[in-house]
Write a sequence for this structure.
């Protein structure tokens, strides 16, 4: 075993109590780091999944129609003007197949799905509910929202007059799979549809209003012939949605709304969570660093005579420096390994204990290899860095003084 | 005449910035290979200061020192450490072994600090040296589990394991009973004769001083008589 490692490990073994205490402190620090990261990461993933489970990452529409002034003000003549917002019509996206082909080719875009979305009434007997009719191409729509996994009854079939509706809407109208339903669109076109499936996306607004039908049926209901009103996209990295949306806006001139702009409250909540996680991580790291540094500083003081002897018998200062850096690194790596294990156990126990009536975890945790690798590298790096000051102090000890003062 | 192992020429050592205290006042001294010399004098006369300077643990204010034919003034810290490792052995009054290490590991230390030497060779040399000082059956005893005399013998083995030309001993028997003192002194004498190692022994014990080949007396930072 190399000299530095031998001396470092022997010193740690010799001061067993001190080593165990600081290892316990580092382990607890790292376990807090792992536990909180797993918990907050899990909560964020769960929130994002719940939110994005019922919506596309990016939605493309025609730009809003703006009222245009006939006469503009000039430097010589100011014109007072009352501007009224123009009513928005349901408009089809120009050349939508070409747009789909273009955006699908963009890096980071996983799928694109055209849809016709419009307002309507769903009528059954005396019940009349305002609904959102969404005409979709089934295969493409499935790539955006995993609707089959969210079906609570029937199948996802939207051919001809078949529709699939939200669970809350089905309950409100008293409809089951196989029942008929009248749908009157905002264009006053009416059809009688058969309910083939009932879904539950977990978003009450969606579950109480959505009626999914075929693209062709929706085009007929809104008189759009072969047009579509929106193109929905799914991207690989959900947090890159706004960047991709901006890119698409520039390329196509369409309105591109990412989930991040639609769900600003959620996003600011996630950002706040991430910030608090970073703050906690920072203070844990500072505590770990101070713990290791203080133990090693005490060790240098305790061992100053021995360091003097080592220097007197010809050990170079550089190797004394390494002895203490190794101790810092070993404390960091062992503490991080034990701490990662403890953190994972804490997280899993917490997840198992905090469940709802159906046994689903209230706080799903996210334990990824990357989390352990990052925590371990961080703790080891912090261990070595914390040891720099004591190690330099040790290597600069004057051997004659150290031996004389012992 | 062979080159001296140690050559000290008009060495002055002063301490303090505002008020200067002169610990060594123009000390000159030469030790030939195989010399066995005692350095005596009252407490505070500068013996330990001289030993630290000769042992390259401290630098003189002025004057020159050559150890094993090498002028030390031109060496940087790294060069001094290397010369200390190769040319010098130390025996201290309180043995100064590393308590967490075994006798064998303590004796291996001077070789261990240097890169490149195979561990097996280090171990064999250390074992051989410990046997030579009569501690072949105590190789794996922790230093603090040995008696005072045994600890000092380990310290002698550590000082000699790399076969340095010069060993500096600072009151090596000062903390031992009479029997252990005699054992330790006899060992140093034996290695001086067998290996030709030069010894400079700081002592307050007149019997030890009388048993050395040469006595160097220091008074008030000066060598009075050699």
């Amino acid at each position: 075993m190399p000299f530095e490692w031998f001396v470092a490990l022997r010193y740690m073994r010799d001061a067993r109590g001190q080593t165990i205490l600081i290892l316990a402190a580092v382990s607890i620090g790292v376990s807090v780091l792992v536990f909180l990261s797993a918990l907050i990461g899990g909560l964020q993933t769960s929130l994002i999944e719940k939110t994005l489970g019922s919506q596309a990452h990016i939605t493309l529409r025609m730009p809003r129609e703006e009222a245009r002034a006939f006469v503009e003000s000039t430097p010589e003549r100011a014109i007072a003007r009352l501007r009224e917002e123009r009513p928005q019509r349901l408009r089809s996206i120009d050349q939508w197949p070409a747009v789909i082909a273009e955006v699908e080719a963009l890096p980071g875009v996983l799928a694109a799905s055209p849809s016709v979305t419009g307002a309507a009434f769903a009528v059954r007997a005396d019940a009349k509910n305002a609904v959102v009719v969404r005409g979709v191409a089934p295969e493409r729509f499935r790539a955006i929202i995993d609707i089959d996994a969210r079906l609570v009854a029937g199948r996802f079939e939207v051919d001809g007059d078949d529709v699939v509706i939200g669970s809350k809407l089905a309950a409100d109208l008293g409809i089951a799979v196989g029942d008929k339903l009248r749908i009157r669109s905002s264009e006053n076109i009416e059809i009688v549809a058969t309910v083939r499936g009932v879904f539950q996306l977990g978003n009450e607004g969606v579950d109480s209003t959505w009626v999914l039908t075929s693209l062709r049926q929706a085009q007929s209901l809104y008189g759009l012939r072969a047009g579509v009103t929106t193109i929905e996209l799914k991207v690989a990295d959900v947090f890159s949605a706004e960047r991709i949306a901006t890119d698409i806006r520039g390329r196509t001139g369409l309105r591109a709304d990412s989930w991040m702009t639609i769900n600003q409250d959620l996003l600011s909540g996630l950002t706040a969570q991430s910030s608090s996680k970073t703050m906690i991580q920072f203070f844990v790291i500072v505590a770990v660093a101070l713990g290791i540094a203080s133990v090693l500083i005490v060790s240098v003081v305790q061992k100053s005579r021995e360091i003097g002897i080592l220097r007197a018998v010809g050990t170079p200062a550089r190797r004394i420096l390494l002895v203490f850096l190794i101790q810092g690194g070993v404390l960091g790596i062992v503490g991080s390994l034990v701490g990662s294990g403890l953190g994972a156990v804490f997280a899993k126990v917490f997840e198992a204990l905090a469940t709802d009536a159906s046994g689903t975890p209230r706080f799903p945790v996210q334990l990824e290899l990357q989390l352990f690798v990052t925590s371990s590298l961080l703790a080891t790096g912090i261990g070595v860095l914390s040891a720099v000051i004591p190690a330099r102090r040790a290597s600069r000890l004057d051997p004659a003084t150290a031996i004389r003062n012992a | 005449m062979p080159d001296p192992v140690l050559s000290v020429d008009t060495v002055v050592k002063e301490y303090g910035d505002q008020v200067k205290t002169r610990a060594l006042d123009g000390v000159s001294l030469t030790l030939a290979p195989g010399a066995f010399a005692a350095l005596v004098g009252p407490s505070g006369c500068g013996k330990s200061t001289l030993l630290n300077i000769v042992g390259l643990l401290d630098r003189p204010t002025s004057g020159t020192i050559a150890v094993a034919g090498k002028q030390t003034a031109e060496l940087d810290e790294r060069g001094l450490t290397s010369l200390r490792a190769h040319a010098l052995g130390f025996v201290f009054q309180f043995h100064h072994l590393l308590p967490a290490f075994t006798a064998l590991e303590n004796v291996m230390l001077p070789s261990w600090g240097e890169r490149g030497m195979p561990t097996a060779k280090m171990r064999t040399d250390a074992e051989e040296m410990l046997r030579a000082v009569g501690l072949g059956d105590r190789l794996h005893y922790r230093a603090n589990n040995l008696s005072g005399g045994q600890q000092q013998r380990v310290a002698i083995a550590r000082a000699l394991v790399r076969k340095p030309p010069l060993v500096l001993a600072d009151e090596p028997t000062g903390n031992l009973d009479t029997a252990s003192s005699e054992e330790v002194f006899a060992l140093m004498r034996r290695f001086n004769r067998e290996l030709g190692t030069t010894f400079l022994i700081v002592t307050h014990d007149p019997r030890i001083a009388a048993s050395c080949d040469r006595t160097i007396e220091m008074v008030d930072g000066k060598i009075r008589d050699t």
User: Anything to note?
Assistant: Residues 151 and 199 of chain A are 4 Å apart (CA to CA).
